[in-house]
Amino acid sequence: IEGALGAGPLAGRRVLVTSGPTHEPIDPVRYIANRSSGAQGTALAAALRDLGARVIFVTGPASVPPPVGVELVRVETAQEMMAAVTAALPADAAIFAAAVADWRVANAAGSKMKKQAGGPTLEFAENPDILATVSRMEKGRPRLVVGFAAETDRVVDHACAKRARKGCDWIVANDVSPGTGIMGGTENAIHLVTEDGIEDWPRLGKDEVARRLAQRIADRLA
Length: 222
Ligand code: CTP
Ligand code: CA
What we know:
Elements: E1 14-19, E2 24-27, E3 30-32, H1 39-50, E4 54-59, E5 71-74, H2 78-88, E6 93-96, E7 103-105, E8 124-126, H3 130-135, E9 144-151, H4 155-166, E10 170-175, E11 187-188, E12 190-194, E13 197-200, E14 204-205, H5 206-221
Parallel strand pairs: 1-4, 1-6, 4-5, 6-9, 9-10
Antiparallel strand pairs: 2-3, 7-8, 10-12, 11-14, 12-13
Helix pairs in contact: 1-5
Bound molecules: cytidine-5'-triphosphate and calcium ion.
Cytidine-5'-triphosphate binds near residues 78, 127, 128 and 129.
């Protein structure tokens, strides 16, 4: 492993990776979450490390363990992830693989809610868009900002629109419809949307997708 020798194409580069879901509390014992396992973000962080990068790995509560040999920052909520990302910058590249909750519960309770007829009424507030915030930084923007787009239909259309809306350089898009087995699985089939166009990659193990993406990132930063 080149990274272990302080060598490799990303030696001396600082790369931020977000990964995993976020948990948005409802009360001290309940939360809203999503099905992200953190597998692809974790594999990508490991692959970047193996190419010699110094990796800051900001992760929500994932179901796979974090890689070794990275700077680990554990967070729970989207707001905590935003703060951790801001604190971790500057970086040469920032890769946003996390499945950030779009909304948090605005009226989260400080003590456990008791069962009541009709159930509680939750109010929602929009979370900060971390990828868009970093993509649009006027000072100190990473040279390469990469977003992910997990979609269930019109994957490439949504990804291209998302890339424009967020202002990031690349989008890694995939189809996470239940039939694909990608969410929570070991394989991934991605479409890489860059300034040069769209590449449809074959279905590969998430580790192999990670290695190929890491090499692309290294080429881009070279
Ligand atoms: N993202 C983020 N902060 C958020 C929401 C999303 O950084 N609050 C990042 C994700 O990590 C991902 C990219 O933005 O890299 C796209 O996330 P996605 O949920 O697909 O985008 P949204 O704009 O939230 O669109 P959608 O309505 O499809 O959820
Ligand atoms: Ca979203």
